[in-house]
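Appendix B. Extra example for self-study. Work through it before the problem class; the solution is given directly after the inputs so you can check yourself.
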Amino acid sequence: MTFRPVQNFKGGRALLVMERTGREGALEPTLAKLGVSCEALQIVDGRAQLDMASLQPDRDMLFVDGDLDGVLTIELNPLSHLPPVPVIGLVGVEAPSRLKALVNLGATAFLRKPVHGGAVYSALFMGINQFLLRGGMQERLQTLEERRRGRRAVLRAVVQRMRDSGLDEDGAYDQIRRESMRVRQSLESYCEDLLSRRASPPDSTGHTGDPPLHRGDKRAM
Amino acid sequence: MTKRLRIGVMFSTTGSYGAVGRTMLNGAMLGLSEVAASGSGPEIEPVIVNPGGDLSQYRALAHDLLASGARQVVGCYTSSSRKEVIPCFEKHDGLLWYPSHYEGFESSDNVVYTGASPNQHVLPLVDYLAAKHGKRAFCIGSNYIWAWENNRIFREALIARGGSVLAERYLPIGDTDFDRVVAAILEQRPDFVFNNLIGTSAYAFFRTFRAACRARGIDQAAEIPVASCTLAEPELAEIGAEAVDGHLSSSVYFASLAGPVNGAFIRAYAAQFPDAPPPSADAEACYIAVKLLAAALQQAGTDEAAAVRAAVADQRLIAPQGEVRIDPQTYHAWLTPRIGRSTAAGQFEVLLEAPEPIAPDPYLVQTSPRFAAAMRSPLLRLVKS
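Solution. Structure tokens for the complete assembly:
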């Protein structure tokens, strides 16, 4: 699918985690030109007061000052390493430790302090679209990972069909593929269902076969 | 204010877009003459420089102007030249008065933009073309930021209205060999051509295209009109009589506008520059820039950039095109969009005009979709039967 980047940020809300030092530069006036409203978060005892539950990823974005040590803790998605909303890091001291802290918050773009008006649109464009791209890639990875796990069931279902029907490998695969398409199910999940249906009836023969596979089974092939 | 203020005036009056530069200089000089004649404005000493269309000259000349004590400069036509000098204005804290329509997506604190933003020239043209001529476009342009970005805005707006862009072609600035492009247009037969060529390239294209259509018995102006956001009266004179008529232009000003203010402007312009063609939209934008600059200098009592910038937000001007004011958030101008069609007499007849000035929207915040349009793969086409 073609990625369509966000290019108009109208209606967005920027939550600013920064101290008023006069080095904010053109950040707020430029965001206003771009149709983005600003809210400065209160910092109490060195911690930004942010209600994570109220964040909306299609509206909100965080600007975090990298010079403020431990001002914010964000729980990142364990798989994508993404925060709940796009984070743009404000860089003052360009030291690896500061930059790393911003990366650990999930920043997908940086803006140098004092902020130059001509850099804000580029940072928004990069920060928000990288956030969306990485989120989309994570979803695709997850889907592919599930399908990879399901390949084991496909192999077993094909072998079983060959045994049951006398078809060769290609024939058995084609037959199962057609059946999965008919019921509008992915091949992998159809095969998993097939194997569990087959394993479900009480085994009266005393045969001890393999246990049924379930989606998410992490055993290696 | 008793001090004589040095004001830079920087236009390429020679080079591939020299015809436009000359008319822009004229607009600025007329404005300066009127300020001087009024006796009530600040005393201004213009320092005129000519980069000759050479990009590398712009930054050097801007630096020289600012280093010599000028803090305000009226100048630049192409976007590449503006982008070239902006760092210099930011470094020296000068103010550039940029008097030309452009592609938007910029808002420097050191620039006042008196020409049209994309919502004041491209979008009205898309609406007009889609309603009157069709939705299949062929886009051409000079190979630099103006044409790239203007074509992108045009493409997205046209696609949003159900249209399509058959092809986009870019040629180096100053290139005048259009045989292959014209052949491609005639093969594709679009409903219209959207033209972002500038200077001598544009004039050569109009001539080549008209001649090729005529040779094939095609009434070019009626069947495949060319629509531009850059075409103005001085350029019609450059195209020549054979191909001058029937071209569409989206602009905030045409010399043929009715009304006493424009009448007086045209008479004064002709009196001061008797051998020049009629003033263009960019000449009017230069005139507006100088008038607003003089008023802001007078109010600020200094030529210091921040004070002048603050003062210009309060200024309103009854300009030849109608009322003009500067938006205090973006420092772009409120202007009145119009669509015109060129005539054999080298003027434009006004086909459509907005009832009042509209707000500038340089980032198209109010008028563009949230997501960029996805590029569609070309549809399959039968090439042999």
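Self-check: Chain B has a mean pLDDT of 93. If your reasoning did not lead you there, revisit section 3.
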